[in-house]
Amino acid sequence: EHQCPDLPAYTMEAQVLGARQYRQRLRPFGEKVLLAAMGARPSWALLALTLAEAEERWLAEFAADLHQVAAGSGGSEYADPVEFFRRTYLTEGLRQLLSEATRRLAGTGGVPVVDLQTTFGGGKTHTLIALWHLCSGTPLAELPEEVQDLVRAAGVDQLPQVARAALVGTRIAPGQVSVKPDGTEVATL
Questions:
Q1: Do 124 and 91 meet the contact criterion of CB atoms below 8 Å apart?
Q2: Cα–Cα separations (whole angstroms), residue 19 to 12, 15, 29, 55, 83
Q3: Contact between residue 151 and residue 110 where contact means Cβ atoms under 8 Å apart
Q4: Residue 169 phi/psi, 5° resolution?
């Protein structure tokens, strides 16, 4: 048996796989990557798989969508306030914004307008969903402790009832007629 020194062995491969192939070939492909370390004991391995075509339903599970949340649809990780906050890491910026919003809603201060200026992937939609859920009417005691502490630190013991509306610009088009469930046609926002 050949003894290999404990040298770092690095290998990276990417292979374009169709969705069905992805599921069928994941394990054999992973083994191939590890075997490519050529006998050295690898200190780590990176496995990158690229799908030839996007599977929209699968990708949608990872994309926050304020329109879906406002409509009460989508996965529970975004649509359910408790689950959303349970899974959300409250950054300092998000904590500050939620605190300001809490104070504003309670009439004890807070800024009236917030301009979210971040690049693509900077958390604008996630922030809007957090605000949506903060105003959802979910009893404070049901929200995760971190959110309860944040609200109480803003000097509020109970969040007020709020009438919410969401206007998602990518879901509307100028001049597009919207037909309501009762058949009413609306040609305005």
A1: no
A2: 21, 12, 14, 7, 29
A3: no
A4: -60, -30
pLDDT tens readout for residues 19-28: 445 445 454 5
Strand 185-186, strand 178-179: pairing: antiparallel
Q: What is the pLDDT of residues 34-81, one digit of tens each?
A: 555 545 455 555 556 566 676 776 666 667 889 999 988 878 889 999
Q: What's the whole-model pTM score?
A: 0.65
**What is the SS3 assignment for the chain?**
CCCCCCCCCCCEEEEEECHHHHHHHHHHHHHHHHHCCCCCCCCCCEEEEEECCCCHHHHHCCCCCHHHHHHCCCCHHHHCHHHHHHHCCCCHHHHHHHHHHHHHHHCCCCCCCCCCCCCCCCCHHHHHHHHHHHCCCCCHHHCCHHHHHHHHHCCCCCCCCCCCCCCCHHHCCCCCCEECCCCCEECCC
Contacts of 76 (CB under 8 A, 6+ apart): 83
The better pLDDT of the pair 122, 189 is held by: 122
Structure token pair of residue 96: 């500050």
| Stretch among 11-20, 42-51, 161-170 having the lowest mean pLDDT | 11-20
Contact 135, 164 (CB under 8 A): yes
Residue with tokens 């374009």, as numbered in its chain: 16
